[in-house]
Predict the structure.
Amino acid sequence: MSKEKIGVYICHCGSNIAGTVDVAEVSRWAGEALKDRGVVVSRDYKFMCSSLGQELIQKDIKEQGLTRVVVAACSPHLHEQTFRNACKEGGLNPYLCELVSIREQCSWIHPDKAVGTEKAKAIVSGGVEKVIWDEPLEPLRVPINPVTLVVGGGIAGIQAALEVANAGYPVIMVEREPSIGGHMAQFDKTFPTLDCSACILTPRMVEVGSHPNVKLFSYAEVTNVSGYVGNFQVTIKQKARSVNTDLCTGCGICQEKCPKKVIDPVFEAGLGYRKAVYTPFPQAVPKYPVIDRENCTYFLKGTCRACEKFCPTGAIDFTQEDEYFTFDVGQIILATGWDLFDARRIPQYGYGRLANVFTSLEFERLTNAAGPTGGKVVLRDGVTVPKSVAIVHCVGSRDQNYNPYCSAICCMQSLKFAHLVHERTGAEVYNFYLEMRTPAKGYEEFYQRVLEEGTHFIRGKVAEITDAARYPGEEGKLIVQAENTLIGKQMRVPVDMVILSAALEPRRDFKEVARLFGISCSEEGWLIERHPKLDPVATMTEGIYIAGCAQGPKDIPASVAQGAAAAARVIGKIQQKQITMEPIRASIDQEKCSGCRICNNMCPFNAITFIEDRMVSEVNPALCQGCGTCVAACPAGAISGTVFSDQAILAQLDGLLLNNLKTLDLTPA
Amino acid sequence: MSSASVSPTPEGIRQKTFLEEVIENTPGDCHLLNCIQCGTCGGSCPSGQDMDHTPRAIFAMISAGLKKEVLKSNTPWYCVSCYYCTVRCPQSVHITDIMYTLKRLAVKEKVYDDSKAPDFSKTFVDWVENYGRAFELGLMSMHLIKHNPFGVFKMAGMGMGMISKGRMAFTPTRIKGIDSLKAILNKAKELEAMA
Amino acid sequence: MSEKFEPVIIGFTCNWCSYRAADMAGMGRIKYAPNIRLIRLMCSGRLDPTFVIKAFAGGADGVLVSGCHPGDCHYIEQNYKAMRRFYLLRKLLSQMGIEPGRLKLLWASAAEGQIFADEVTKFTEEVRALGPLHWDPTAALEAEQSIYQPAEVAA
Amino acid sequence: MKYSYFPGCSLERNASAYHVSAMAIAEPLGMEFVEVEDWNCCGATEYVSLNLIASYALIARNLAQAAKETSTKQLVAPCSACYLNLKKCNAYMEESPSLEEKINLALAAGGLSYKGGTLKVRHLLDVIVNDVGYEAIAAKVTKPLKGLRVAPYYGCMIVRPKLGKNGTFDNPEYPTTLDKLLKVLGATVIDFPLKAHCCGGHMTQISESTGFELIRRLIKGATDYKADLIVTLCPMCQLNLDAFQGAMNAHFNTTYHMPVLYFTQMIGLAFGMDAASLGIGTELVDARPALEKIGVEVPEAEIVVKKPPKEALPMPSMPEEK
């Protein structure tokens, strides 16, 4: 007979659990069959997580003197904290409460009520056995370093960095390209208001570049991350710029004089050129150029040095090497952005084969006043103004063959393109769309405006784009073939130019990023937030937040909102000055430790050290992350872990197998 | 699995919908329930311009339960089995396979229109069932005479050319194991009738 | 209830990937074999071989060990340790007369609810095909003794 | 390399040039073909329009017959329709145990059985470019097809649909293996945008206007691109584009002249083989003017009108041409 007084609470979760689990029966069963195990109260309730549900527990703790609580409801990842807090409020140590899941792993996966009820009983029984072994614990508290690392200098990262910096805390920003600004810097106009992108972005970039609280590393990458929330150590690799930033004034003479012209695949989306020494665009922040060593004549052939010769301040330094800096930071915001879908993957759209098929980013550069054509919309020959243009929505998105998701921005982007084509060329515009999705402030109004401009809207996914003329009048044109689904007829529309609204995709190196920062990403590669609705900026890893398109496709307003939200979370934590952490830690019983040192190499966090003079090992609780590998490995059984002790796990095992109903007393002595 | 959502209907509660019937008669998971009416199939179809309804429209009609209209349509018979729609479909609907299903259902229900296609298939199959191999000359001439006696003149030049180049046989080849083949096919048809 | 043998399977999952994969399967309302009962550990590296032996001794017909994909471990590399223990355990089980097929290792990321569900169903069928495990628990005690000996190797 | 070989009905007669040329190049390419014992028709696209299980059983009989040959697991079909049918049946049997069971019940009536996935079904082009390889082919070229502008034409069923785990051996939208092969043979290969479009299949028999239009698009496309000839790998495509070209011209009142040869014939020519031995001359649209560009002499085709043998069945009479 257990000495403990255990309360068991079965949640209906509306019909989510009660639909396929007989909750009343589980509650009755727990009260009777587990009586000997210490269960003194067993109840079922419609919504345990509601305040009334929580009060129910608190009342029982007070009135019945409960010493342990088991809640059978949803996943601990959802409401463990809720019920621990409820217990704490009720006067019980929060770590004496177990939440077991009878929803995600039981009621939702099987339609048979009898089976579900039996499984729920086993799960509850496992929880009851485990809770007997739980110990009262206090959460660990560690100080938080106020320095925040922001990875990615696009609009989301810029917003986040400014919010934190303006709140008075230091920020380190790391950007891979020579300048911050991200994709937004490539655009000419932004929907739906058609503000000039540079006009609204440049001031923000300048603010970041000159902010006393921001340390900006551009042309740099994070190469290593260690530590934990509040106390990360990050290593930043500053790639060699070959330009001494202490001397450079950003005058631009080196770029003027550099004889080597190369296609710019990043900022100009492959549609324009830059020099081997370059800043991606005139308003770049920082203003210092970099030498692209893969293309620089000096680095390739050993001669030239034109930039060095003409630099008025002697800032060119060919001998520079990559540098590594290590910083302590408290929290990290990832705003690593997106890459464009490679439209060549859809051969029937002809991109790469048919000259006048353009991608959305190429078209953005075409319309940009500072772009390769000075904002003139022309065909690939650089001179001819198109008389008819087709804009294809959903290229590589909403398609099981490529990306199943909706890219969220294409509809509005395509409407913007339609407007710009009208405005700049007067051409006939055909938008081939699947569904028109304009769900944000001012978006539907913009759609109305583009309708009124006389754009042709054809509802149908484009089947193919070809230059093979079939009928008279098609010669020399690009023919867009699709079904006009609203009239149910196949159509061939001959045009001069096609713009593919290509999908937004996760950064190509998403796997490395996820691994480096220890967070998870979805199958496609978007970084996963802690909760899709209630916690869209935090991640499962404490202290790491995400913002902008790294989390999923989104437009500028949403990216900015998320950047600010991530910053707010960071600032909130900094202001608490310390962070509470789960007290799941290992400790070594010095009496039992034989000094074999097997555990020493087990720990990837170097939390275990061998004390030479006493010939025993010791765990540093500040470094221990609680994985428990050493506990499992210790041959002497000298290491024990809190929350997940050997005894607790074995007890839960027995409970799940329902052996507690028939066998010996497993209660702690 | 989308097939899960067409779980067997309890007897006597309601009749199987046409949509369910089409799905059941198509091998594998044909993903018809996933159709989002985008029209990639109709846009891609080489003979789409001559169809009564585009494949997309046919799918909408199937889910609306317009069985008679669908089975009377010439659409499946104008399918040339090029599989463009199938590989391009953003929802992985097995469109070509569904067209074959519609042909079979139309033949079974005897409601297809006056398209020559079912007869062409039947004539072809007759040769195969009796000889084990196809027989082009017999097939083409019989088909022409039956359906387009005047077309015979148009095609005669081609036929003579083929014969003169030695590319057309006068006699069909019969395989050795024709009896075993017949037994196999009979058994197969028996199994099909039971399903 | 049918006469069909319903195996009892114990699943050890790590807190970060595989338990979340199970959550994901549930949230997606993916239907799969209900025979599995999960124990959440912080990491698959926490898996003490004793847990597995005890599970079999206590009446489980199959044991699933599940963690993050190699390289994705929340604790950097501890799932490799689970993998090493897994192979050793399989060997040990066959020495003790238990079909190694009753123990399965599954990598599942937090996004792989479908994979988790499919694999659990597959494993349930495999164990069902092997039939009920009737195992003498006293042998388990001996095994438990022996398992502590080669811990260096197991680790 | 040894392969089971499934010629299919077309190669017996109307596409005999394909068969003859494939056999002629097998030896120099180091390939050995063992014809499937007493094979039967694959049912083309017709049988499955009428009966589902029977059509698969018909195909499966061939798989079962081919599996009897134990020295190779590779089954090669030169005809795209046969290739797809065999591949599809093989894949569906492997994927769907219930279909496999039914098919095997039927096969058992003929004393046969087959397990889905036992054989690997491949197209002749696939084995030539992937098993033999471009380099080995290049090494054998003695008379490069220099100066000949060819339009490579794949048609549909060799690259579509994607089936099974490995999908297709070439891109379903824009395949390139035949392009590369013809380049290796020394020809000038045009980037033919219609290379994987449809030849119309049996549409000439169902709806002439539809069928002829599909043929016209391809012939017009190749002509617009100034091709000397179209190179294909499917007997149905060859039949439509070659044998029906005259009727198509008559229908549209056009004067296209676009010869259509098989890729195996082109390999043979580049290997220096005699045109007649490759079945060149049996095409209806005369390829001689095109081949003269590369100095290939083609004998005047012999007009053979064989008398039907005694056991022949009565024939429907063919009306005389006016």
In short: Chain A has five domains: 6-139, 142-239+324-333+544-580, 241-321, 339-505, 586-641.
